[in-house]
């Protein structure tokens, strides 16, 4: 305990780090306040519970409850994430965007500008769909519906752009990745209410069941931490070079290939597609019993059909996203150019094939584990856990929380070590981070 308080004192003794933490907290408070401000000309007392049940509850959890409250930040940062995913895919498929990506700082500025414009377009479409979806009941609208829709489309778009600006300010002036931090704080804000509701449900004779739930949640979190941090280290040897009478190189380093290199993106991709079957089937629900059945099945994330398709999509997207983010050919070329090689493997094409084979072998179990984590909330609901609390047993919510917290701890740890303070861990570094990492 003394070590813990000593570390806290060291953190706030560093002026730059202290300023960044205060800035981050201030920006997060502004974000949470905006999540409780209801859209203009909307009666909050007449809002229903349409976004707190079924598949929309997943989105509502990620947005920190703003979705169901018809807040000015009801869409949050999600349109920006959608735009970023689209642009990222374009950098792989479209030569113009690939060229921009290779142009350095000027290319990144152009890509960021395109992303912002695309965010506005996506927000307008999503804002219109949200306002017309029936989540906000007609009796809650206090003015003419047409002008209410037009006005609030502008408000929702402005809210999303402001949230995007807050995320950028946190990245520049605060701690951690701003966009991820905003998502995480929205998820965490729902946790106390979900935990309290579950505790009330399990009171009295079911107290033991509640304790078992907490124990199960602890082990799930530990498993997700292992999934996030697990790496396969490929040894790299550099040839010795004599420069100016001094010998350089010769030491062994490593290329750390993450078991889950794709992170949470496969779940986000798959979850985006899982909205489509129910949406498309809804258009023919009145004319076809089959369409009506499909709509009901894919509107419930606890059905086995939904989870089977969801798991398969996650496995496919994990391989896809890993393929576009980790390039074995580029790694092999960089190693060859810098005089590095994998012991026992010829430089160049053989090294590329070797890295690709290792990546494929570790991605398969990683993708299966990720799919299991993604469907755990549905299994928790089937086991009798409250739907809101079950969201924290896996899926996007838990992966984002674990990833952002680990990233933030790494950044704080770096500040401590730079100022010659003892790190937050006994080893001076967060586990899973290698000291000798080959730069590829």
Automatic annotation (TrEMBL):
InterPro entries: SecY, SecY/SEC61-alpha, SecY_dom_sf. The keyword S-adenosyl-L-methionine does not apply. Keywords: Cell membrane, Membrane, Protein transport, Translocation, Transmembrane, Transmembrane helix, Transport. Signal peptide: none annotated. One of its GO terms (cellular component) is plasma membrane. The chain crosses the membrane at residues 21-39, 70-97, 117-140, 146-166, 178-195, 207-227, 261-284, 304-326, 362-383, 389-409. SUPFAM superfamilies: Preprotein translocase SecY subunit (SSF103491). GO terms for biological process: intracellular protein transmembrane transport; protein targeting; protein transport by the Sec complex. The keyword Cell membrane applies. It is found in: Cell membrane; Membrane. It is a multi-pass membrane protein. Component of the Sec protein translocase complex. Heterotrimer consisting of SecY, SecE and SecG subunits. The heterotrimers can form oligomers, although 1 heterotrimer is thought to be able to translocate proteins. Interacts with the ribosome. Interacts with SecDF, and other proteins may be involved. Interacts with SecA. The central subunit of the protein translocation channel SecYEG. Consists of two halves formed by TMs 1-5 and 6-10. These two domains form a lateral gate at the front which open onto the bilayer between TMs 2 and 7, and are clamped together by SecE at the back. The channel is closed by both a pore ring composed of hydrophobic SecY resides and a short helix (helix 2A) on the extracellular side of the membrane which forms a plug. The plug probably moves laterally to allow the channel to open. The ring and the pore may move independently. Belongs to the SecY/SEC61-alpha family. This is Protein translocase subunit SecY. It comes from Cesiribacter andamanensis AMV16.
